[in-house]
Design brief:
single chain; 435 residues; mainly alpha; 19 helices; 80% helix; globular
Length: 435
Amino acid sequence: MNKNTFIVSFTLFAIFFGAGNLIFPPKLGLESGSEFWSAITGFILSGVGLPLLGIIVSAFYEGGYKTATTKISPWFSVIFLMAVYLSIGPFFAIPRTAATSYEMAILPFIGKSSSLSMLIFTLFYFAISLWFALNPSKTVSRIGAILTPILLFAILALVVKAFFILIDNDPSEVIFTLRESNNSFLFTGIIDGYLTMDTLASIAYSVIVIAAIQSKGIKHGKELTKQTLLAGIVAAIALAAIYLAIGWIGNRVHISAETISLLQERNQDIGTYILNKITAQAFGNFGRSLLGVIVSLACLTTAIGLIVSVSEYFNEIYHKISYKTYVIIFTLIGFIIANQGLSAVISKSVPILLVLYPISMTIILLLSVNIFVKVPLVAQRLSIALTTLVSIGSVVGLEQANNLPLKDYSMEWIPFAVTGALLGCLIHVFYKSES
């Protein structure tokens, strides 16, 4: 490995290491109890493995997923990418950054959330976001480049201190009070990994990521894919280690049933509570304040970057509305949704992710196979079409979908994706032999 590999590794790591993602592993760790290793493995597979596979696959296709999905169907490409950008933008990811910042930086010091305090905080938060997004410059990316190492250092310090505090604790015993499910915790972890939204981000921003890699002097062909692959492995190991560590913290923190009930009554996120609790134990109120400020600033730079990217994308596909108008619209949407609270933002994102993730995974896997063995367009179209129909049917609650194989694991789309691909290949061979 050379210097470029590590530079690219940090680029990939910084893109996927979002401050908003820190809240999911501790909550999963708490909920999984003695099933922690199974649950965190699932989380890492979907929260780390899939996004990095998505970036690596895009290195094989000039123009990234936009070009690849346009070949499958221009209309599908536009609708799918619009849904992806809206999900990782104003409807879920942007408001999540604000709500996470509020619960990490403000809530621990006021005790109880209120509509007024949330409104005041998000008003300032989105006013700053709007100002920067209306006047995009390199300032935000530079601040982000500084904040990522600082945040990483803070998390590592917390993990080390927490290890000595929690090492003698047994796994949590609240597994059945928090999650009423008979599912394998491997699949529970996979579904929770969806919440990071990083697989969707890898599809939406693959061109930007590859361009960033190329700016390091790695231009084309096999060298680009090789360096992306090596860097992806390094970044994946780093991300997996962090998620594993903070998940373990959640697994060993002891929280009473009364506290959990109170958090649920207040609609307060358990993951942020765990991080605040262990930070206060490790470093006191000053440490908790410092972590809250770092997380908030990191979330703010993420929010600004997302507003800019989503506004640029929509301005590109529909010029009649100006970039600045898009910025204002998407900032307002994020502001309104953020004020519903972090738990509400997360819970409302799940149904949409249960539709978008199967489609995204099908696309990534089809394009992965296509690198080595040519997959006919008809096979790609049928596989994606069946996956889309089954995913939508399951989320809206169609009775027929409830009896599908793997439904209990939210993986009912897999047999249809495979069947569609195989059927498409047979159709392609048949028509080719006929002609």
